[in-house]
Write a structure and sequence with these properties.
Blueprint: H1 6-9, H2 14-19, H3 78-97, E1 102-107, H4 116-126, E2 131-132, H5 134-137, H6 144-153, E3 155-162, H7 164-172, H8 175-186, E4 189-193, H9 198-204, H10 206-209, E5 214-215, H11 221-232, H12 235-239
Parallel strand pairs: 1-2, 1-3, 3-4, 4-5
Protein name: Toll/interleukin-1 receptor domain-containing protein
GO biological process, one term: signal transduction
InterPro entries: TIR_dom (IPR000157), Toll_tir_struct_dom_sf (IPR035897)
C-alpha cells in the first residue's frame, strides 16, 4: 500500500500533492475559501504539441500556464495552474484598480536580508518584477514600521519567504509577524518555502501553511522566480477589456 508523504513533505504545493503516491490526483486538502476571487478568464490550454516550450502538454503532463508568455520554458502541472489561477485573477483585478503599485512586497526574516531574500529579490528584478524590499526601500533614519506600512500599501501581491529564520521570528513575534498579519488579511499572499517544509510552517502558522505557493525543494529559486514573474506580469491583461463574470 502506498504511503502518504504529507508528514514529511506536506501537500501545500500542487506539485507536492501530485507527487504523493497515495494522494496524487485526489482532493486538495485544507485550503481557505476562495469565494472572494473572480471567475477565471483564461481559456483552456490546448493539448497540442509535445514539448514544454510548444505551449501544449509535455510527455510528463506539464504545460505552460495560460498567463505564461509564448516563449516561456517553465512548465506547470494542471493542479499548479488550478491553484495559482485565483491569485492571478486577484492580481489582475488589483492592477486594474491601482496600476501604479509595485508588483510584489517581499516579507522576510531580518536574518535573510542579505542572503536568500536578496537572492530572490535580485532574481525577480532581473525578470522585470518591481519588488518592495526593505533593504533597498527604507532609507537610513526613517521610522521602520511606518515605511513597512507604506510598502504594504504600495504593493499588489505579498510574497513571504519562509525560512528557518522566519519561523523563529514568527514564534517570537516581531516585525515579520506584523507584516504577515497584514498580508494574510488582504488575501493576496504567496508563500515561498525555502530551506524548510510546509509541515514545519504548519506548526508555527497554520493559516500561512494553508496558502498555495512555491517550494524550492521542488523547483530551484530561479524557476520559482520565473513563475512569480509570469504570475504578476499583467500588462497584456490591462490592455484588454475585462471579461464579464458569468
Amino acid at each position: 500500500m502506498s504511503r502518504c508523504t504529507a508528514p514529511r513533505r506536506g501537500h501545500r504545493t500542487a506539485s507536492g500533492r501530485a507527487a504523493c503516491p497515495a494522494c496524487g490526483g485526489g482532493g486538495y486538502g485544507y485550503s481557505p475559501s476562495r469565494s472572494y476571487y473572480p471567475p477565471s478568464a483564461y481559456p483552456s490550454q490546448s493539448s497540442g504539441g509535445s514539448g514544454a516550450t510548444s505551449g501544449g502538454s509535455s510527455s510528463s503532463g506539464r504545460t505552460r500556464a495560460p498567463w505564461s508568455p509564448s516563449t516561456s520554458s517553465v512548465t506547470y502541472t494542471s493542479a499548479e495552474v488550478k491553484d495559482l489561477t485565483p491569485a492571478r485573477d486577484a492580481t489582475v483585478m488589483r492592477a486594474r484598480q491601482q496600476p501604479a503599485l509595485r508588483d510584489v512586497f517581499l516579507c522576510h526574516a531580518w536574518d535573510d536580508r542579505r542572503g536568500s531574500a536578496k537572492e530572490l529579490c535580485d532574481l525577480l528584478e532581473t525578470k522585470g518584477v518591481s519588488v518592495w524590499f526593505s533593504e533597498k526601500d527604507i532609507p537610513y533614519g526613517l521610522p521602520f514600521m511606518r515605511e513597512i506600512d507604506r510598502g504594504l500599501a504600495k504593493s499588489r501581491t505579498g510574497l513571504v519567504l519562509v525560512t528557518p529564520a522566519l519561523l523563529t521570528r514568527l514564534e517570537r513575534g516581531g516585525v515579520s509577524d506584523k507584516e504577515l498579519s497584514e498580508l494574510l488579511a488582504r488575501n493576496l499572499l504567496l508563500p515561498v518555502v525555502h530551506g524548510t517544509t510546509y509541515g514545519e510552517l504548519r506548526n508555527v502558522s497554520p493559516l500561512l501553511a494553508s496558502r498555495n505557493g512555491f517550494d524550492t525543494a521542488e523547483d530551484s529559486m530561479e524557476v520559482v522566480a520565473t513563475k512569480i514573474a509570469e504570475l504578476v506580469a499583467v500588462e497584456d491583461d490591462l490592455t484588454a477589456p475585462p471579461t464579464p463574470a458569468t
